[in-house]
Amino acid sequence: MTQQDSAPQPRSPQDVRYSPYEIAEALGDFPPTEQQAAVIASPLTPRLVVAGAGSGKTTTMSDRVAWLVANGLARPDEILGVTFTRKAAGELSQRINQKLRNLRRAGLIDEPEDDNAPAAAQEPTVSTYHSYANSLVRSYGLRLGVEADTVLLGQAQAWQLAHDLVQSWDGPLPATVPAASTLTTGLMQLASEASEHLVEPRRIHEFVGRLRAMCLDTPPDGRKKSPGRKVQDAVRRMEQTEVLAQLVERFRAAKRVDSALDYGDLLALAARIVRMDPHARTVERERFSVVLLDEFQDTSHAQLALFSGLFGEGHCVMAVGDPQQSIYGFRGASSGQLFSFVENFPVRGSSDVEPSRFADTSFLTTAWRNSLAVLEVANAVAEPLRTPPAWSRSAATVEVPPLDRRRVRCAVVCG
Known about the structure:
The chain is of the alpha/beta class. Helices cover 47% and strands 8% of the residues. It has helices spanning 20-27, 34-40, 57-70, 86-105, 129-140, 155-167, 180-196, 201-216, 229-257, 263-276, 278-287, 301-311, 335-339, 341-344, 372-386; strands spanning 47-51, 79-83, 125-128, 151-152, 260-261, 290-293, 316-321, 360-364.
């Protein structure tokens, strides 16, 4: 079975027994909005959901799982949910499992026939991005020479190793040598960014070296015999980056000797496994027929490569995010990455003749968390963010609509 053939095909409308509204009524929940219902009952094809702040994205994702399971479109153990923090993963897991328990009480799904069945068979897998990468490395890393007893370094352990390397550095130094703690922080940051962008430190060293040489050839500034101050400052920073790139190489070598990894290594190795191991791709795609990717606006290039390599080519993947809430720009995340989902997770054509197309995009714009006055200010402040600059646009770029709030009308009848 090939990677493309293993993707589940969308079910036909007659396979659906319960609508999102019927499920909500059976469980005693508030009915979803039209936007939420469209997302919950969307086809089993790739879809980007742009969910504004306070628009109920976690509720919508858990309702999506409930709808899939209640209609027999997926078993709980075939569903993978991924988000950023352990707290968010715990909340999403709790909400999904509560929904499934309520479905069983309402008789919409059957109780497990085997009372001794493991909990994993009755519950979806909900994980952080790094934890899922760690599971891939543990399961398939041996094929790439990663031993089973490899140790995962904490932040403090990784910093101490980096600091020791800085203290013992015997290579060339820039004209202005910063403090050892500053170099250590720079080493850690560059090592993380190289992993997040899947760039080898040697390439960084070579590129910066060429760029520095070009800057040194810059014509003198006016009557001066040397380049201007801004160019000189840039050259000094590049000299430091060259040293840091070499330290990153030693940092990676030291971790290999100690059979150790850090969190950046997990993502880079997992992306490499997906790229080089067809067996891993096939197993993971068959294991999870439905994938939910939360906070997708904060994913890095490595995370995008990891999940598009695993679950691209028409797999049922729903990515949820908001380009106006990206907080991990220092790790390579950007709103442009959010909209690149539709290109990297295309919808397959229904035949060999019909070409693939961009994934569909849905919006959740009804905010429940704030008053109308707050929303008006937020929409005004975020206006420039809703339309990306012309240089960053592609055929897949869409304009994000502003948030609104549902107005509730009530009347009091006096008798």
